[in-house]
Amino acid sequence: MSNFLKIIVLAALFVTPTVWLLADINDAKWCASDEAINFLKTCEQGKDDQTGTKWRNGAVLLDQPERQKVESLLVANADKFSPAGRKLAAFALGSIGGDAAVPVLGKWAQEKDGMDAIRALSMLRVPSANKELAKLLVSVSDGDLKIAILDILAGKGDASVVKQAVDLSKDSKTASAAYYYLASVGSDEAIAAISAAKPNGEVLQNARNWALVSAAERAMRDGRNESAVAVFKGLIGDSNAEQIRLAAAQGLLQAQGAAALKGMLNDLLKGNHESLRKKLARVIIAYPTPESKIGDLLVKLPQSDAVAAALAQSFGDYPEDVQLVLLNNITNLQVGEKYLALIDAGLKAKSDTVQVAAIQALGVSGNESSFAALAAAVDSKDEARSAAAVNAVAALKGNGVSALVLKSAMASDASVKAKWLDIVSQRANHETLPFVIECAKSPQADVRSAAFAALKNVMESGDLAALVDLQSSAKENADKKAWREALIKVAKSRAGDAKAVELLKPLLERSKDSDLQPVAAAVAGVDNKEAADALKAQLASPDVDRRKDIIRALSSVRNQTSMDLLEDSAANGKDPSEKILALRGLLDTVRQMNLRDEEKVKIWARAWDLAQRQEEKDAIISAIKDKKGNKEARELLKKIGVQV
Q: How far apart are CA 245 and CA 237, in angstroms?
């Protein structure tokens, strides 16, 4: 690009916003001109939209002195504007007007297409606008206009037309809007009016009931709980829709707390409506928290501890499905210790399913005091009960729980020791390692397997020697697999440690068959010179299958040691198939490692020279193309003859 063109582009970038700003300022000044007023007198709908846009933009940008001037001009010429001009003038008066604009807009609102004037009145921030809207509610005959006015006054919090809204609630067309308005007022008079309404049809019935819920919530916000309680109790009846009854139950719980549970809500929880009682059970557990939400209102729930106590007291009287919902919600929401009494009631329930749910709930809500009950359940011969207890003890919180777990695990009978090892594994406490190692040497297969499964979770970097010594104790395939996984994990945690290689090197030299690859991966995971030297010695083996196993292990590690050894094998391997395996491992390692693009390009360039087959070449080309935004990558593609 020439210097001249650069200057033009830069000038455009800076000048264009300035031009737009000046245009908007000029639009504002133009609104006060005779030309602008004459345009409003003659404009036609759908024609000259550009000038109409100029009017809207300009009206919004007028400053205070200009606003008063334009408002005066619009009011003085109000009777002379065309219908299309009146729409634009209404918008302008709504944006800039004050008390002087109200009579004009009130007059326009009663004429054909009065909605624009009503919208403009809704925009005004003067008390007279609300009064004008209240008068219009009586004087306009169009139902849509009445609905719009009610919605506007409701949004403004204006409570001056309650009596008119009561009358309009008797008209099926305006009833819903009237209910909404009365609900926004929320006064006792408004509540009485909505309650007295007798709408026809399910749609209006539901609209009326939702308005009552909203009005009662407003009454609660205003501190009139007695009025709210009366509404909620009236809505809980069988004749109403389920969602209305549920909302009323939520409101009653919010207003009364435990007192609600000792009355109508308790009856609902025991009632015949299965879906409702389940939903209500969820609500009760979700709401007794320090802060609760009803609609958009965040308030304190009274007597939340008392709610929990009331639930526990009546728990045995509830149907099984309600008991399960209560307990499962305690588990899912982790609502805390206030429900321990309810959980205890669940442990004593007649239903085995409920008892299992109580055990699960105890795991997330309990503490050290809950341990004895859960430990007894771990020893149960009932598999479902025992399995739930294992997970519950594993999740149990409290500073003293880990010591109790280890004590019980060490003292457990052989028949349940594997279950305690599962708990030990889930809790991942390093202090349990001596116990786990002892169990890993057990003659009992299930105990031994559970111990090996726990190794990876309880071992730390300093336990590598103990882990190496355990190799001979791994008898079953599952035990061997668990031991290998633990070995790789612990070895990686010793990255750079020459002593770790000293421990692993003898193991590597004697390993074969299925142990060779994981042991080699563990050595590579240490990622230092000593590890590289130990693996190079194995790559010099005369056994091609052994060399390939080492290469496969290196391909799984993804670090600098593995990458260097794979590249060396791809270049200097003794067998063509060995070279191909190493090159593919190198490409996969480079793809997954977090390297700078420039580093990757250099490796791909060397890999290209080592590639023997088109398959590897295609893989290299594809990898380079993914980085073609990089300069070095584009140059490499060009060098190997691939068009970018």
A: 7
Cβ neighbours around 613 below 10 Å, total? 12
The token pair at 169 is 């609630």
pTM: 0.71
Angstrom distances, CA of residue 531 to CA of 538, 539, 598: 11, 12, 27
250: Cα within 13 Å, side-chain hemisphere: 21
- Please compute, for residue 445, the number of CA atoms within 13 A of its CA located in the half-sphere on the CB side: 4
Q: Which residue type sits at 613?
A: R
Listed in sequence order, the residues at least 6 apart from 378 whose beta carbon sits closer than 8 Å to its beta carbon are 386, 389, 390, 393, 408, 416, 419, 420, 423
Per-residue pLDDT at 19: 34
Closest CA to 440 of 467, 412, 402: 467
Chain mean pLDDT for the chain: 89
Q: Look-up: residue for tokens 């009931």?
A: 209
Question: What is the torsional sign of CA 71, 75, 80, 83?
Answer: positive
State both tokens at 204: 């209006």
**C-beta separation of 128 from 99 below 8 A:** yes
Spatial separation of the C-alpha atoms in residues 481 and 273, rounded to whole Å? 53
Interval 601-639: pLDDT, tens: 999 999 999 999 999 999 999 999 998 888 999 999 999
The SS3 call for residue 334 is coil
pLDDT, tens digit, 9 for 90 and up, residues 177-215: 999 999 999 999 999 999 999 898 899 999 999 999 999
Tokens of 385: 């009960």
Question: How far is Cα 102 from Cα 130, in angstroms, rounded to an integer?
Answer: 9
Residues 6+ apart with CB under 8 A from 525: 488, 491, 492, 495, 531, 557, 559
293: its two tokens: 């939400």
Q: Select from 572, 569, 614 the least CA-distant residue to 589.
A: 569
58-65, long-range: CB < 8 A, 24+ apart: 58/24, 58/27, 58/28, 58/29, 58/30, 58/31, 59/28, 59/31, 59/91, 59/92, 59/95, 59/96, 60/95, 61/24, 61/25, 61/27, 61/28, 62/28, 62/31, 62/32, 62/95, 62/96, 63/28
Write the single-letter amino acid at 163: K
Which own/partner contact pairs does 164-171 have at CB distance under 8 Å and 24+ positions apart?
Answer: 164/134, 164/137, 164/138, 165/190, 165/193, 166/193, 168/137, 169/193, 169/194, 169/197, 170/197, 171/143
Q: Where are the beta strands (DSSP E) in 393-536?
A: none
Q: How far is residue 637's CA from residue 643's CA, in Å, rounded to a whole number?
A: 7
Helix axes 225-235, 202-221, angle to 10 degrees: 160
CB 134 within 8 A of CB 122: no
Distance, CA of 556 to CA of 588 (rounded, Å): 9
